[in-house]
Amino acid sequence: MALVSLKEILQDARAAKYAVPMFDVANPQMIRMAVEVAEELNSPVILAAIEPDLPGNRLNFWANAANYAAINAKVPVAYMLDHATNFAICKRCAEAGFTGVMLDASSKDFEENIRLTREVADLMHKYGVSVEAELGHVGDAQAGQGEGAALGNKADDHNVYTDPASVEEFIERAKCDALAVSIGTAHGIYKTAPTLQIELLAEINKVSKVPLVLHGGSGTPEDQIKAAIANGISKVNICAEMMYAWHKSWMDVLQAAPNLGFLECVAQVEPEKAMMDVMRKKIRLFGSNRD
Ligand SMILES: [Zn+2]
What we know:
8 strands; 291 residues; globular; 47% helix; alpha/beta; TIM Barrel; binds zinc ion
Protein backbone atom coordinates (compact mmCIF):
# COMPACT_ATOMS: atom_id res chain seq x y z
CA MET A 1 0.00 0.00 0.00
CA ALA A 2 1.77 3.09 -1.22
CA LEU A 3 -1.06 5.59 -1.28
CA VAL A 4 0.00 8.74 0.57
CA SER A 5 -1.19 12.32 0.88
CA LEU A 6 0.38 15.19 -1.03
CA LYS A 7 1.78 16.50 2.26
CA GLU A 8 3.39 13.15 3.11
CA ILE A 9 4.93 12.63 -0.30
CA LEU A 10 6.67 16.03 -0.11
CA GLN A 11 7.94 15.69 3.46
CA ASP A 12 11.39 14.37 2.68
CA ALA A 13 12.05 16.23 -0.59
CA ARG A 14 12.90 19.67 0.73
CA ALA A 15 15.53 18.55 3.24
CA ALA A 16 17.06 16.06 0.81
CA LYS A 17 16.98 18.61 -2.06
CA TYR A 18 15.10 16.71 -4.70
CA ALA A 19 11.68 17.37 -6.24
CA VAL A 20 8.80 14.95 -6.57
CA PRO A 21 7.41 14.96 -10.12
CA MET A 22 3.76 15.75 -10.64
CA PHE A 23 2.62 14.41 -13.98
CA ASP A 24 -0.62 15.62 -15.52
CA VAL A 25 -2.12 12.28 -16.48
CA ALA A 26 -5.41 12.91 -18.23
CA ASN A 27 -6.74 9.35 -18.27
CA PRO A 28 -6.31 5.87 -16.74
CA GLN A 29 -3.80 4.80 -19.41
CA MET A 30 -1.49 7.69 -18.51
CA ILE A 31 -1.93 6.91 -14.81
CA ARG A 32 -0.59 3.39 -15.45
CA MET A 33 2.30 4.74 -17.51
CA ALA A 34 3.37 7.22 -14.80
CA VAL A 35 3.33 4.59 -12.07
CA GLU A 36 5.23 2.10 -14.24
CA VAL A 37 8.00 4.64 -14.82
CA ALA A 38 8.06 5.65 -11.13
CA GLU A 39 8.44 2.00 -10.11
CA GLU A 40 11.13 1.40 -12.70
CA LEU A 41 13.20 4.29 -11.28
CA ASN A 42 12.10 3.82 -7.67
CA SER A 43 10.72 7.34 -7.38
CA PRO A 44 7.70 8.80 -5.57
CA VAL A 45 5.17 10.21 -8.02
CA ILE A 46 2.19 12.54 -7.92
CA LEU A 47 -0.61 11.88 -10.40
CA ALA A 48 -2.74 14.85 -11.36
CA ALA A 49 -5.84 15.65 -13.34
CA ILE A 50 -7.37 19.02 -14.11
CA GLU A 51 -11.08 19.76 -14.10
CA PRO A 52 -11.51 19.51 -17.90
CA ASP A 53 -10.21 15.91 -17.64
CA LEU A 54 -12.97 14.98 -15.21
CA PRO A 55 -16.46 15.90 -16.45
CA GLY A 56 -19.35 13.79 -15.16
CA ASN A 57 -18.48 10.22 -14.37
CA ARG A 58 -14.93 10.56 -15.68
CA LEU A 59 -13.96 11.77 -12.21
CA ASN A 60 -14.87 8.37 -10.76
CA PHE A 61 -13.10 6.42 -13.52
CA TRP A 62 -9.99 8.53 -13.02
CA ALA A 63 -10.06 8.28 -9.20
CA ASN A 64 -10.56 4.53 -9.26
CA ALA A 65 -7.68 4.03 -11.67
CA ALA A 66 -5.41 6.28 -9.60
CA ASN A 67 -6.43 4.56 -6.39
CA TYR A 68 -5.82 1.10 -7.85
CA ALA A 69 -2.43 2.19 -9.19
CA ALA A 70 -1.45 3.80 -5.88
CA ILE A 71 -2.41 1.03 -3.49
CA ASN A 72 -0.62 -1.54 -5.61
CA ALA A 73 2.48 0.54 -6.32
CA LYS A 74 5.89 -0.24 -4.88
CA VAL A 75 6.61 3.49 -4.57
CA PRO A 76 4.75 6.30 -2.75
CA VAL A 77 1.93 7.69 -4.90
CA ALA A 78 -0.34 10.69 -4.26
CA TYR A 79 -3.11 11.75 -6.58
CA MET A 80 -4.52 15.21 -6.82
CA LEU A 81 -6.69 17.70 -8.65
CA ASP A 82 -4.53 20.43 -10.18
CA HIS A 83 -5.83 24.00 -10.60
CA ALA A 84 -9.19 23.47 -8.92
CA THR A 85 -11.38 26.51 -9.40
CA ASN A 86 -14.02 25.96 -6.73
CA PHE A 87 -14.99 24.39 -3.42
CA ALA A 88 -17.52 21.93 -4.89
CA ILE A 89 -15.05 20.15 -7.18
CA CYS A 90 -12.56 19.81 -4.31
CA LYS A 91 -15.27 18.22 -2.17
CA ARG A 92 -16.15 15.76 -4.95
CA CYS A 93 -12.50 14.79 -5.32
CA ALA A 94 -12.05 14.30 -1.57
CA GLU A 95 -15.11 12.06 -1.52
CA ALA A 96 -13.66 10.09 -4.45
CA GLY A 97 -10.42 9.43 -2.53
CA PHE A 98 -8.01 12.05 -3.89
CA THR A 99 -5.17 12.78 -1.46
CA GLY A 100 -4.45 16.32 -2.62
CA VAL A 101 -6.03 19.32 -4.31
CA MET A 102 -4.44 22.46 -5.67
CA LEU A 103 -6.83 25.37 -5.33
CA ASP A 104 -5.90 28.07 -7.78
CA ALA A 105 -7.17 31.41 -6.49
CA SER A 106 -3.97 33.10 -7.67
CA SER A 107 -5.79 35.55 -9.92
CA LYS A 108 -7.78 36.87 -6.93
CA ASP A 109 -6.47 39.55 -4.58
CA PHE A 110 -4.47 38.55 -1.48
CA GLU A 111 -7.38 38.50 0.99
CA GLU A 112 -9.71 36.64 -1.37
CA ASN A 113 -6.99 34.09 -2.17
CA ILE A 114 -6.58 33.46 1.56
CA ARG A 115 -10.33 33.22 2.16
CA LEU A 116 -10.96 30.76 -0.67
CA THR A 117 -7.91 28.62 0.14
CA ARG A 118 -8.75 28.48 3.85
CA GLU A 119 -12.34 27.48 3.12
CA VAL A 120 -11.12 24.53 1.01
CA ALA A 121 -8.30 23.66 3.44
CA ASP A 122 -10.66 23.44 6.44
CA LEU A 123 -12.80 20.88 4.64
CA MET A 124 -9.96 18.97 2.94
CA HIS A 125 -8.08 18.48 6.20
CA LYS A 126 -11.12 16.69 7.64
CA TYR A 127 -10.71 14.15 4.83
CA GLY A 128 -6.93 13.92 5.32
CA VAL A 129 -6.50 15.61 1.93
CA SER A 130 -3.62 18.08 1.52
CA VAL A 131 -4.01 21.48 -0.09
CA GLU A 132 -1.64 23.29 -2.43
CA ALA A 133 -2.26 27.00 -2.94
CA GLU A 134 -0.71 29.54 -5.30
CA LEU A 135 0.61 32.95 -4.30
CA GLY A 136 1.61 35.29 -7.07
CA HIS A 137 0.45 34.06 -10.46
CA VAL A 138 1.99 31.68 -13.00
CA GLY A 139 0.78 32.83 -16.41
CA ASP A 140 0.71 31.24 -19.85
CA ALA A 141 3.68 30.72 -22.14
CA GLN A 142 1.27 31.03 -25.05
CA ALA A 143 -2.28 30.10 -25.82
CA GLY A 144 -2.99 26.89 -27.66
CA GLN A 145 -0.99 24.17 -25.95
CA GLY A 146 -0.34 22.66 -22.57
CA GLU A 147 -1.76 22.93 -19.09
CA GLY A 148 -2.56 26.61 -19.40
CA ALA A 149 -4.49 26.10 -22.60
CA ALA A 150 -6.44 23.26 -21.02
CA LEU A 151 -7.43 25.66 -18.26
CA GLY A 152 -8.79 28.09 -20.78
CA ASN A 153 -6.21 30.74 -19.99
CA LYS A 154 -5.37 33.45 -22.45
CA ALA A 155 -2.13 34.44 -24.14
CA ASP A 156 -2.18 37.75 -22.27
CA ASP A 157 -2.26 35.95 -18.91
CA HIS A 158 0.94 37.35 -17.40
CA ASN A 159 3.14 36.28 -14.52
CA VAL A 160 2.93 38.04 -11.18
CA TYR A 161 5.93 37.10 -9.07
CA THR A 162 5.38 35.81 -5.54
CA ASP A 163 6.13 38.46 -2.91
CA PRO A 164 8.35 36.95 -0.16
CA ALA A 165 7.00 39.51 2.33
CA SER A 166 3.51 38.03 2.18
CA VAL A 167 4.43 34.32 2.20
CA GLU A 168 4.42 33.70 5.96
CA GLU A 169 1.12 35.42 6.55
CA PHE A 170 -0.48 33.66 3.58
CA ILE A 171 0.53 30.19 4.72
CA GLU A 172 -0.44 30.87 8.32
CA ARG A 173 -3.91 32.15 7.46
CA ALA A 174 -4.72 30.00 4.40
CA LYS A 175 -3.57 26.78 6.11
CA CYS A 176 -2.12 25.36 2.89
CA ASP A 177 0.23 22.34 2.98
CA ALA A 178 2.27 23.31 -0.09
CA LEU A 179 2.74 26.58 -1.96
CA ALA A 180 3.03 27.13 -5.70
CA VAL A 181 5.25 30.11 -6.40
CA SER A 182 5.66 32.35 -9.41
CA ILE A 183 9.36 32.86 -10.14
CA GLY A 184 9.47 33.06 -13.92
CA THR A 185 7.99 29.85 -15.32
CA ALA A 186 4.77 29.81 -17.33
CA HIS A 187 2.26 27.16 -18.37
CA GLY A 188 2.48 25.52 -21.79
CA ILE A 189 5.18 25.53 -24.47
CA TYR A 190 7.64 28.42 -24.32
CA LYS A 191 8.38 30.64 -27.31
CA THR A 192 11.72 31.50 -25.69
CA ALA A 193 13.38 29.87 -22.67
CA PRO A 194 12.38 31.40 -19.33
CA THR A 195 14.80 32.91 -16.81
CA LEU A 196 13.95 31.83 -13.29
CA GLN A 197 14.35 34.26 -10.39
CA ILE A 198 16.45 31.98 -8.20
CA GLU A 199 17.32 34.69 -5.64
CA LEU A 200 13.65 35.48 -5.22
CA LEU A 201 12.98 31.76 -4.75
CA ALA A 202 15.70 31.52 -2.09
CA GLU A 203 14.07 34.41 -0.20
CA ILE A 204 10.68 32.73 -0.37
CA ASN A 205 12.17 29.43 0.75
CA LYS A 206 13.70 31.07 3.82
CA VAL A 207 10.31 32.17 5.13
CA SER A 208 8.04 29.37 3.91
CA LYS A 209 6.96 26.75 6.43
CA VAL A 210 5.62 24.48 3.67
CA PRO A 211 7.21 22.84 0.60
CA LEU A 212 7.32 24.96 -2.56
CA VAL A 213 5.96 23.97 -5.95
CA LEU A 214 7.04 24.94 -9.46
CA HIS A 215 4.31 25.02 -12.12
CA GLY A 216 5.14 25.29 -15.80
CA GLY A 217 8.15 22.98 -15.51
CA SER A 218 7.94 21.84 -19.14
CA GLY A 219 10.61 23.33 -21.39
CA THR A 220 12.49 25.06 -18.56
CA PRO A 221 16.26 24.63 -19.13
CA GLU A 222 17.70 21.80 -17.03
CA ASP A 223 20.27 23.94 -15.19
CA GLN A 224 17.51 26.28 -14.05
CA ILE A 225 15.37 23.38 -12.81
CA LYS A 226 18.35 22.09 -10.85
CA ALA A 227 18.98 25.55 -9.35
CA ALA A 228 15.30 25.83 -8.39
CA ILE A 229 15.38 22.44 -6.65
CA ALA A 230 18.61 23.36 -4.83
CA ASN A 231 16.86 26.51 -3.61
CA GLY A 232 13.72 24.96 -2.19
CA ILE A 233 11.42 23.60 -4.93
CA SER A 234 10.06 20.22 -3.75
CA LYS A 235 7.53 19.49 -6.49
CA VAL A 236 7.69 20.22 -10.21
CA ASN A 237 4.60 20.00 -12.42
CA ILE A 238 4.98 18.56 -15.90
CA CYS A 239 2.26 18.56 -18.54
CA ALA A 240 3.00 20.23 -21.88
CA GLU A 241 6.22 18.35 -22.64
CA MET A 242 4.53 14.99 -22.04
CA MET A 243 1.52 15.88 -24.17
CA TYR A 244 3.72 17.19 -26.96
CA ALA A 245 5.68 13.92 -27.11
CA TRP A 246 2.46 11.88 -26.95
CA HIS A 247 0.63 13.76 -29.69
CA LYS A 248 3.65 14.05 -31.95
CA SER A 249 4.15 10.30 -31.76
CA TRP A 250 0.47 9.63 -32.47
CA MET A 251 0.69 11.89 -35.49
CA ASP A 252 3.72 9.96 -36.82
CA VAL A 253 2.11 6.56 -36.15
CA LEU A 254 -1.19 7.46 -37.82
CA GLN A 255 0.44 9.14 -40.81
CA ALA A 256 2.62 6.05 -41.41
CA ALA A 257 -0.25 3.54 -41.12
CA PRO A 258 -1.31 1.91 -44.44
CA ASN A 259 -4.89 1.89 -43.12
CA LEU A 260 -6.39 3.18 -39.89
CA GLY A 261 -8.16 -0.04 -38.94
CA PHE A 262 -5.16 -1.54 -37.17
CA LEU A 263 -5.11 -2.78 -33.61
CA GLU A 264 -5.09 -0.23 -30.79
CA CYS A 265 -2.56 -2.25 -28.79
CA VAL A 266 -0.17 -1.90 -31.75
CA ALA A 267 -0.94 1.76 -32.40
CA GLN A 268 -0.17 2.93 -28.89
CA VAL A 269 3.25 1.30 -28.46
CA GLU A 270 5.26 4.24 -29.77
CA PRO A 271 3.17 7.04 -28.19
CA GLU A 272 3.44 5.33 -24.81
CA LYS A 273 7.17 4.98 -25.23
CA ALA A 274 7.50 8.66 -26.18
CA MET A 275 5.54 9.90 -23.17
CA MET A 276 7.24 7.54 -20.74
CA ASP A 277 10.64 8.72 -21.97
CA VAL A 278 9.72 12.28 -20.99
CA MET A 279 8.63 11.07 -17.53
CA ARG A 280 11.87 9.12 -17.11
CA LYS A 281 13.98 12.12 -18.10
CA LYS A 282 12.16 14.40 -15.64
CA ILE A 283 12.46 12.00 -12.69
CA ARG A 284 16.21 11.79 -13.23
CA LEU A 285 16.48 15.57 -13.59
CA PHE A 286 14.51 16.13 -10.36
CA GLY A 287 16.67 13.61 -8.48
CA SER A 288 13.70 11.77 -6.99
CA ASN A 289 14.88 8.36 -8.28
CA ARG A 290 16.49 5.80 -5.98
CA ASP A 291 17.27 3.19 -8.66
ZN1 LIG B 1 -0.04 24.81 -13.15
